[in-house]
Amino acid sequence: MCAAEAKPVVTRFAPSPTGYLHIGGGRTALFNWLYARGRGGKFLLRIEDTDRERSTPEATEAILQGLRWLGLDWDGEAVSQFEQKDRHAEVAHQMLARGTAYKCFSTQEDIATFRAAQEAAGASYAVFQSPWRDADPASYPDLPYVIRMKAPRDGETVIDDQVQGRVVIQNATLDDMIVLRSDGTPTYMLAVVVDDHDMGVTHVIRGDDHLNNAARQQMVYDAMGWDIPVWAHIPLIHGPDGKKLSKRHGATAVGDYQVQGYPAAGMRNYLTRLGWAHGNDEFFTSQQAMEWFDLGGIGRSPARLDFKKLENLCGQHIAAAEDAALLHEIEAFLAAAHMELLTDAQRDLLSRAMYCVKDRAKTFLELIEKARFALVSRPVSADAAAEAALDTVSRGILKTLTPRLQTVSWTKEELEPILTEIAAAHGIGFGKLAAPLRAALAGRTATPSVYDMMLVIGRDETISRLKDAAG
Ligand code: GLU
User: What is the residue range of the motif 'HIGH' region (predicted)?
Assistant: First the structure.
C-alpha cells in the first residue's frame, strides 16, 4: 500500500454562497459525504465567499439548510475562504521565496500590446509572457505588482482523474496565472489550493466544470511541493431531454424538493444513483450507499434527471420508514412548506393512520392527502366526485347502516359481515357501498380502505360522519 492510500480520507464541499443549493451541488456534497463517511474519514465544508459582492449570508444559510435537510453532516465548523486571505497572501510570498512565482509589474496596456503583437504575428492564441519572469530583482521599479506563478512553458500537465481518466493539458496553453493581485488579495485559483492543502483534503470530488482549473491548481501544488489530492471530476446533471439542467426542466434547488414533500432519504437515494451505479441496485439505504460508494462507479457521461424514478424511490422510502420517524419528518415538512401544523389530536390520529397511508405515497403531500380522513374535522367537506357518490339512494343505505354500528365490536372481523350484509340487502356489490362510505368518511373517492378509516377514527366519529352525510 502506498503512503497516499494510507492517509485518512478527507473530502470537502466548497460552495460559493451566491444563491441557493443547486441539485447538482447537493449531489456533489452527497458524493463527498458518502466517500468520506464510508471510509471513516472526514467531510468538511468550506464556504467560498471571496466574491464579496455576490456572496451573502442568506445564501450561505440556504446552502447549510439544504445540506442539513439532505442529512449531510459535516465535521467541525464551516471554513470561510475569505477569512483565510492573509494565509493565501503568505503562500504567494512563499512561492516567491521558492522561486516558483515572481513579481510582475506589467500594466494592462503592456498586456494588450503583447497580445496585439502576437495576433499580428499570426499566433492562434496569445498567452501572455511577462518580461518580468526572469528579471533581476535589482531592476524592479517602485510600482504596484501582481504575483504570478512561474508556470512550465513546455511539456504537459497530466490530471490523473478517477472519473475522466488521464487528462493531458499542454503547458504552452496555460499562462503564468496571477496568484496575488496588486491589492494583495488572492485569486480564486490560489485560494482553493491553499485551503484544500491546509484542510488536509485528500480527495477533490467536484463538477467537471472545474476540470480545466485542476491543471492550473496542480501547478500550485507543485510550486509549493505539496501532495496533489486525488481528483474526481463528475459530469454535470442534465434535464430529462439531455440538455443542460435549467429551471425549465423543473425544480433545480434542493429546497424546492423539500417543500414539494420529497423525503430526504428518497432524495439521497436518487441523487446517489444519479451518475453513479452499483450493479442494478436502485433502492438502497444511506448505510448501504456509504458501504458501496466508490469513485469507480461514477459514469463519464452526464446523468439525466428522471422525475419518475425520483418519485418511485421516494415512495419506497416513505413505505419503508418507521412510523415515528415519518411523523417527525412530515411535521418538519409542514413547517418548511409553511403549511398548517398538526394539532395534538391530529398528530395522534395521523400516527394511528400511518400504517394505511404510507404505502404508495410518493411525497408527503400525497401522504397527507391520503390521510385526509384522519386530519379533517366534521362536517367533512366533499369534492365533486365524492358528492356525486352521495346520491339519495346511497344516503338511504347509510341510514340503515348506522344503527348496526352502535353495538358491534370495533374490529375488521366484526364490521365486514355487517357491511357485506347491508350491500346484499340492497342488491349492490361491496364497491357500490364503499363509494358513499369513502365520501362520508373522507370527502374523497380515493382513500385507504373503508375498514382502515373506520378503525382509525373510531366508532363515534364514524357514526357521526355517516349521519352527517346521510342528512
Ligand atoms: N466554489 C466552487 C463552486 O461552487 C467549487 C470549487 C471546488 O470545488 O473546487 O463551483
Answer: 15-25
**Whole-prediction pTM:** 0.93
> Alpha carbon of 431 to those of 122, 370, 447: distances in Å?
83, 19, 13
210 CB less than 6 Å from ligand 1? yes
Q: What are phi and psi of 335, to 5 degrees?
A: -70, -45
Q: Under CATH, which number does the domain 384-470 receive?
A: 1.10.10.350
Residue spans of the domains in the chain: they are 1-78+235-320, 91-180, 322-375, 384-470
Q: Within 13 Å of residue 89, how many CA atoms lie on the same side as its CB?
A: 11
CB 79 within 8 Å of CB 166:
no
Q: What CATH number does domain 1-78+235-320 carry, 3.30.70.20, 3.40.50.300, 3.40.50.620, 1.10.10.2840?
A: 3.40.50.620
In ligand 1, the atom with minimum distance to the C-alpha of 12 is: 8
User: What pLDDT tens digit does each residue of the chain (471 aa) get?
Assistant: 454 456 899 999 999 999 999 999 999 999 999 999 999 999 999 999 999 999 999 999 999 999 999 999 999 999 999 999 999 999 999 999 999 999 999 999 999 999 899 888 887 667 899 999 999 999 999 999 999 999 999 999 999 999 999 999 999 999 999 999 999 999 999 999 999 999 999 999 999 999 999 999 999 999 999 999 999 999 999 999 999 998 899 899 999 999 999 999 999 999 999 999 999 999 999 999 999 999 999 999 999 999 999 999 999 999 999 999 999 999 999 999 999 999 999 999 999 999 999 999 999 999 999 999 999 999 999 999 999 999 999 999 999 999 999 999 999 999 999 999 999 999 999 989 999 999 999 999 999 999 999 999 999 999 999 999 998
CATH number for the segment(s) 91-180: 3.90.800.10
**Is 247 known to sit in a ligand binding site?**
yes
Best probe residue, ligand 1, of 189, 190, 210 (max atoms within 8 Å of C-beta): 210
Q: Measured in angstroms, how far is the CA atom of residue 67 from the centroid of ligand 1?
A: 16
- Residue in the structure block whose three cell numbers are 504575483: 147
- With a 6 Å cutoff on the Cβ, whether 196 touches ligand 1 is no
